[in-house]
Structures are given as structure tokens and as C-alpha cells.
User: What shape does this take?
Amino acid sequence: MDNRTRDKVFYITTPIYYVNDIPHIGHAYTTIACDTMSRYKRMKGFDVHFLTGTDEHGQKIQAAAEKQGITPQALVDRIHLNFKELWKVLNISNDDFIRTTEDRHIRVVQAMFKKLMDQGDIYKGTYEGHYCVPCETYVPESSMGPNQTCPDCGRPLTMMKEESYFFRGSKYVPQLIEYYEKNLSGVMPRIRYNEIMSFLRGEVRDQSVSRTTLKWGIPVPGDEKHVIYVWFDALINYAAAVGYLDNPERFQRYWPAVRHMVGKDIIRFHCVIWPLMLLALGLPLPRSVIAHGWWTVDGEKMSKSKGNVVDPFKMVKDYGLDPFRYFLLREVPFGSDGDFSEAALVGRINSDLANDLGNLLNRTLQMSESYRGGVVPAAGSGYDDILGSVLENVDAAMERFAFDEALKEVWAFIGRANKYIDETMPWKLAKEQDDPASVAALDKVLMNLFEALRLAALLVAPVMPQTAQRMWAQLGLEGDPLRELYDSFHWGMGSGTRVRKAEVLFPRIDIREWQKAREEKKKMEEEKKAPAAEHEPEIAIEDFKAVEMRVARIVKAEEIPKSRKLYKLEVDLGYETRTVCSGIKAFFTPEELAGKRVILVTNLKPVKLCGIESNGMILAASVKVDGNAESLTLVAPEGDIPLGSRVS
Ligand code: MSP
Assistant: This one.
């Protein structure tokens, strides 16, 4: 640690993620934002501590483990790795990863619970309320959805009554209001600050902090019938990880510098309950809780049931890591909701990355190669500083966690550099190299472009670390741009660098090809999906043989006046003619059916449909949506085979 980092400390946390969910872009987003901020602060000379982790207790885990016939511990040991793997793939530079099933966490949770109990801030009572089992929360009547459903997941709530320990948070509310009145950046952005303040000024009740309804949790010290409520347990991770119990020196260093980044859905836990717990424990409050918005996908809420959950592993595989990181932070103002679409991602790759940044690098390296043999000349006649106030503006935006604005600033600078090429026309100067003034002018232009790219690499580094490193290498620079300090970002640093051969940074995506491939993929996926949804249990060959099926011909089809779906069919089996009612009216006219050869199940027990006795069933394949056939085709024998032939 050099001198600079001694007093500049920055501790940032992501929420700890529920392990029962498969990681999606929502999780990726928070973690990439924290990673970018951590990398930025490191370049600003801060001693950064970046924490993430997993939330592993609770009802859902217990239920999932029971279903799989394994212990909850075995389950979480396996599935928390999904998150660790994702962070590796997303190039996340976290300094620590905490799991709530680790001993270092459990001991702190119990110690804090006990301290609060001993000082009378946790007491025993009875809790009764509407409980959402999947979300593990009691839902106040005022926030219930229609027909007593959970406002978050929409599922029905269960009335529950249990003995419970309560945290006397209400006692500390006035102190918290006072704190926020003095610290306007205690909750960011302002819209969330206002939301929290109005909540605090309403009636804040004591929190139920234990459960007797589940086992998979941390036992209440001295009363093992209860386990500690998952949120009380989870929030403590932030303090446990930096040594609340075990390493006071470390705790003193990082704790006062803590910032929590969270999604807007969990701000009450972070901006009300957690600070009330900290006040009761006599600990400093977080500098800021920064709340971001939610991602929808192609305009719709992301959900497993809709099947539109965006898989970050797949996005990285299809589009590359840095474009994905860039897109998430550039696309929406931090704090607002945003819509994810691959089309928008492709748009940004082509315009911002391939066109603006990629081209600038490519053109510059190629010109250096052709006009100066790849050696960047010394700018004998000075610099044209096109950087302006970019550094200050980026800094100001980053202080507000406005990643999108910081990136806009950087891209305005990249745009200016591209324009500088058009204005100075180096290709024209290159033709006038007999003139010493043109020689000097071309040297100057090339040097300035090199400088622009060197600084662009440094400025994009927190968001796109690999891109920065690739640019650095192509510019022929030594060392690692990620280790450079922001204070040393000056214009006009060096000369004489031998640049490398230009390599394409971001290949352009051909929109037509992309669309075609996408449609084909979608079609294939749908085809794959259709039969998979309808698997039946395995049967023995005898079961199959018991079904008698024969080739038949539809003689005629008639409407059944009372039925919207059924036709009355007359079917010829060669050896007899039968009446069959078939639900295929939506797909054929009677004329289309007459004369068609089909396969008929002949030994089905007769049934009466709309007053008509049906003697068999014709086979058809269909695509079903929500249980209803959307398209349908009849199964027919190929070639000529006598009516009545057996199908086996
Ligand atoms: N385990 C709790 C947090 C405890 S922190 C002490 C939890 N976990 S979570 O896995 O459900 O959610 C973690 C984060 O993902 C939240 O900040 C949430 O806002 C975020 N997101 C989940 N879906 C999201 C989107 N569709 N878009 C953006 N972020 C979203 O809550």
C-alpha cells in the first residue's frame, strides 16, 4: 500500500444472492456495477474492499433440499458455485466472497442477536400475519395484492401465527431520521431517499426476527426452537466479512467506509432495518445505500414462468464479455429501470464499440504503420489537447454512481478524437512529406491520436478491463492499464512507442445475418420445447400393444350444431364403418377431411360426446400453448396400404 491509499478507504458490497435462483442479468448487473466502481476507485488510489456472497438459509432452500433428498448444506455447497463461476466469467474483482453458512458469519449473527437481547432491544412476543412462503416475508395488509396475494410474486398468502422474537427497531427511528436529514446521500438516488424518508415518518413497527416454522437457519442463542429470520441473518454479512468479531482493526478500517449497492426492491431492508440494527449496536451507519432499477426483457418482466430470464453466461458467449458489461452500464441511467434486448446490445456493439472506439484504434495504428513505420513520433511541435474536462466530468459522474453519464463523457471524447482525424486529414499531410511543416504536422497528429487512445484505454478500463488491456498492448505500452493511477492521466506522456499491428477490437455484427440466425434458433428452440413439456411416464411394450390402431379413411365430416370444437366423422376401416367425434373443427373444413386416410385407435371404450356415441379416436400431432392446440396435423400412413391394416 503506498501513502496515498492509507487514508482513502472504500468498502463496497453487493447484496448476497439467494442461491436457489439461477444467476441472471439482474444479479450480473449489480455485481458488474460494483466491480466497475471498485476498479475505478482502485485507479483513484483508494484502498478498496469489494465484497459479494450468497444468502444460503431459509425456507426455499430447505424445501428444495427435501425434494432432492439431500441436506440443505449439501445443496448450498453445490449451488453457490453457480455464482462463483459467473463472477469468474464476468471478470469480477471481488476481494472476498461470504456465505451465510460459514462459521465466520454465523458467530457474528449470534453475537449480535445476543447483544441486542441482553440490552433489551430484542424481546419475545407473538406474531400473526399474512405470510408469503416462497418469499419468506410477512406482507402487511396495506401492500397485499388482489385476493390476498403476495405483491412481489403474486402467489396466495397464508395466515400464520407464531411465537417470535422482535427487534425494537422503532426506538431508533428518530435517530435514523435525523441521520438521513443530515446525510442526503445516505440513500441514493434522491427518489429512493424520499421514499425511505416518508416510510420512516410513517408508523415503523418492531421487526419479527425469528421463526419457529423452519429449521434451516441460525439458531437463536439460548432458544433453539427458533431460528433467526433470514433477513436479520443476511444483512449482518456485511459486518461479519470485515472482522466485526475477529479483527477489530480491520473492521475499524473498512466499516466506516461502507457503501451498499442494492436493487430498488430491497431498500427497506437496507435503508431502514439494517441501519436501525446498526444504531442499536452502536455502529456507524453506511455512507450510502445506492439503489438501482430493475431490468425488464423486451418490455416484459423477467420471470421463469415466461421463460425470458436472460442468462449472463450465454450473453457473454454470444456477444463477448466487455460488450455485455458496457451495455448494462451504458444503456440505462443508473437508478432507473431499463429494458434489455439483444437487438439494443447489437446496436451498441456496432455503433459505440466497433464504429467509434474500434475504428479510432484501427485507423490510428494503420496510419502510424504506413506513415511512420509503426513508431509513434515525438510531438516536437506540441500537443492539441482534445481531452478537455473529460477527467473531471467522469469523476463527478462516478461520484454519483452515474455510470451511463461517465461513459457518455468518454464517448464524447472518443468522438472528438475521430473528428480530429477528419479535420487534420493526415492522409493529405502524408502526401506532402517533402515539406518540413507537413512532416511536423503529421507527427503531431499521430502523437495526439496515440495520446487520445492511451487515455481512452485508461478511461474505459473500469468498465471494460480486457479491452483496456488489449488496447494497451496494441499501442505498444508497457505494464497493465488497470494498475495506473488516475492522477497520472495527463495528456502527452511519451513518444517513440512502437505500436503493434492493428487487430479488430470489436467485430461488427451483420444485422441481417444476426436476425436470420436468431429466427432459426428461436424456431429450433420452440420445436425442442413442444414435445418436452408432455412427457408421460414410461410404459411396458405390453401397454403399448394393448392399444389397437388401424388405417382408416374419413368418408365424411359433419358439423355438430352444439359443439364449437367437434366434428362427427364417418370412418371406413375396410371391414366396417364407424362414427367418431373428433376435436379438429378449428383446423379443417368438412371438405378437406373427406377422403383423408388416417390412423384410428379402434379399441377405445365408446363415449358420448354432444349426444353422439364416438367409437374411436383419430391420431393427430399438435403444438399446444397453455393446454390448447395451436396448430394440428393428422397422422396419415405413407403410401398405399389397405384400410384396416394394423399399426404397431
Ligand atoms: N438475498 C437477498 C439479499 C440479501 S442482502 C443482505 C436477495 N437476493 S436476490 O438474489 O433475490 O436478489 C439480489 C439482487 O438482485 C437484488 O438487489 C435485486 O434487486 C436484484 N435483481 C433481481 N432481479 C432483478 C432484475 N430483473 N433487474 C435488476 N436487478 C434485479 O434479495
User: Anything to note?
Assistant: The two ends are 78 Å apart (CA to CA). Residues 366 and 502 are 7 Å apart (CA to CA).
